[in-house]
Amino acid sequence: MVDFLTSRTFASYTNYAPSTNQQNNTLASLATLKRYSQDQKYRKQLTREADANARDGLLFNVKESVPELRMTERRTFMGLCCQNCTFTSRESLVKKTTENLALINVLNHEVAFKSGFLSRTFSHVFQVSQLKRYAFPQVANLVLRDDRVKKAVERVAVQQLKDSDSTEDEFYQELIKKNQARAKKLVSDMRSTLSDFLLRFTSWILYKLLPCFMNSVVVHPGQVDMLKQASKTNLPLIFLPLHRSHLDYILLSFILLNNDIRSPLVAAGDNLRIPFFGSLLRGLGAFFIKRRIDPMMGRKDHVYKAVLHTYMNLCLRSGHNIECFLEGGRTRTGKPCMPKYGVLSVIVETFMDGTIEDALLVPVSLNYEKLIDGNFIKEQLGEPKKMETFGDALKGIWHVLNSSYGSMRVDFNQPFSLRELIKTFDQNNKISNPNVSARVLKSNPSTNSLYGTDVVSEEHKSLVENISKHVIYDCAQSTSVMSTNALAFLLLSKFRQGITLQKLVVAFEDLKKDLELSRRDVGFSGDAVDVINYAVELLGPALVKKEKLNGEDTIKPIAILPNVIELSYYSNSLVTHFALESVIALALSVAEIRLNTVSQDDLMENALELCSFFQYEFLFCKPCQNLEMVITSCIDDLIIRKEIFLPEAESNELVRRSRNIARQFEDDDEEEPFQKLYKINTSKEAMENVKYMAHILMPLIEAYAITGFTLETLVQRQLLESELVASVLKEMKEQLATGSLNYDESVAVDPVKNALKLYQKLGILECHQEGKLRLYYLKEAYDNSESVKLFYNKVNKYRTGNLLIQ
Ligand SMILES: CCCCCCCCCCCCCCCC(=O)SCCNC(=O)CCNC(=O)[C@H](O)C(C)(C)COP(=O)(O)OP(=O)(O)OC[C@H]1O[C@@H](n2cnc3c(N)ncnc32)[C@H](O)[C@@H]1OP(=O)(O)O
């Protein structure tokens, strides 16, 4: 079994390339690949073959000359739900065959049709006409009649009356009407008008358009099978995807629709409510929410919240599925963002107040070989974000249709029961905190207001936080690694100065094996040399340079600003994967090393400090796990996989000896407390591995350190966030120019903002927010140069660890 994405590409190019010796003539093959992948005739040929294969029980033609394309080859099956939290869900929906099914390209739906001239010629019309019909109840007109909205209107009117110092009943009635009118407008702006006809029609158009710019959209049929079964339970499915591109929600709805799974209503930011496209999206399932629920005149916007809550409540009650991008926007860095909680908290409360008996959560991750909409370089370098307009949308679509973006992969995780998850969290909460009465499962909607401040609400908040983080963690774990991710990662973390193709192939294979060992699937297959050449071509010469040096093919990253920001976007998928290993390498680099040994306590202390520094960058473990245990098991893993530490037997021997020596020298008979020691493998290869792993997070360390350094500008003064970020970026660019900063990609807005958030959390900074403006100043205890410097050194020490400069 192979990944359809490259299997198809490479199978096809092997089958059709005129070159007889593809191994020796990769460049020629690559050119052929590109030419043929754009050739419509070739596509038709492929489809005809696929049809024939489908009749023969195969998905695509497997010639004997391409043995690696056998579909029986096992590949990693990702996305099963958490064994700790959702044991019962994990046992459900999976069949023995689920894991073993071969990947499919959903753009090739016509292969399913066995015969009939008409159905083959009009296969897509036939396909969409055969889909299951769903009723999509419209609930918007019920919102204003709901008690929650009525109460919110009254509450706000009473408040406004008090503010006006008037007691006149007439004025109060006027305020009621005004707030009712506002509620009506909010509902009308928010509501979705999901239409079965529009979905089918769009699906037909997508069948025509998607192949113009994508090779394939690959899914695992086992995962889709789980969804189909889940949808038969009649429980609402809550799709929670990571957000990379505007294509995410289009492809998700497209895949669900074409597999007879009820299309979801999607929480869309109201910035997308632009002329024409807004109405179109509304008809395809979008319901519009404010990107930020800003307070109205300094107070919480109770009317808006009641409207949102009631609308979602009614949708779930009437059987709609819902989709929400927990990250609240597309990732700008290629790493998953920390979740936002508003929409999910409504869903959780809808379950807890008994409106729905349960819901099935479905984490989803999507990955693209080439990013389709924008590369966020300007934004990362400090230019303000541009609002979407009608013109931009048109221009964007035109540009996309005329470009080539390779393949993409969608991974649906196993659906799991919200009820079961909450029950487990509740039980764990009882065990770890017996004094807090666990009321989570039987909360009362009238007292447990979503936006209230009582004790139960705090419990509710931490529950929603845990669920959201679990989902983001799960999504990150089940994101397939694309060829461009692997190439960008190797080039930026290991071969910044360039590397010969031959050596890169070896590193590429190693990386693939490493990923397989940690149960990550990759979105490519075939010979590494072909995959690398293909990825080089996709990334393009602005990001990766291929040249002949001393007669050898050499690949070099363009590791300078601004290009490197885009390259690091691709690499960051894997930076997330290796973040904890990098933390351990950095922790080791500053630890106290005696006789080539390091104490577990020392290593753990540093590692925990780094994890806390990067709490807004990565989720290092699931909420149901203990971070220390996860770090320990990662160290154990490094002993086996990277041989950075020697195996335990040797380390234990060392502990025994050191304790004996200690007893001989100390007068008192008291036993030394047991300290686990790790013996470091000092071989050249192991030391190189430490450096390589440490460097994975070095751009972030630099960004955090320079942000700390720039806090000096805040001593005895205040700055707006935009000014502060601008001065950090300026400082970074200056340090880059003088060579004190090593990584161009450190110069990016995202990590700087996260660092500011962290320093605020650590109690160094204070932030005063008014509307969209954030004003930063130092806390009293830190409002002097010495304290700022001390703090800066605390972060900066990781840039200059002993093992890294040897
Ligand atoms: C056939 C083919 C078809 C193809 C064609 C298909 C097309 C199909 C449709 C297209 C559709 C487009 C889709 C676009 C994709 C996007 O537009 S992504 C962007 C929009 N989506 C989202 O942002 C969703 C996630 N975001 C949220 O949930 C955010 O919380 C909200 C609701 C946007 C609000 O954000 P915020 O103002 O920053 O506020 P936040 O701090 O998160 O908290 C808000 C409230 O939540 C509550 N809250 C906060 N933390 C917690 C907590 N831990 N627990 C409980 N409650 C909490 C608080 O009570 C808070 O209110 P306050 O107490 O502070 O007053």
Automatic annotation (TrEMBL):
Gene Ontology molecular-function annotations: glycerol-3-phosphate O-acyltransferase activity
Subcellular locations according to the entry: Membrane
Record flagged with keyword Transferase: yes
One GO term of the biological process aspect: triglyceride biosynthetic process
Keywords: Acyltransferase, Membrane, Transferase
Domain Phospholipid/glycerol acyltransferase: 237-369
InterPro entries named among the record's database cross-references: GPAT/DHAPAT (IPR022284), GPAT/DHAPAT_C (IPR045520), GPAT/DHAPAT_LPLAT (IPR041728), Plipid/glycerol_acylTrfase (IPR002123)
A GO cellular component entry from the record: mitochondrial membrane
UniProt main location, coarse: membrane
Family in the record: Belongs to the GPAT/DAPAT family.
Protein name stated in the entry: Phospholipid/glycerol acyltransferase domain-containing protein
Organism: Dendroctonus ponderosae
Gene that encodes it: 109545486
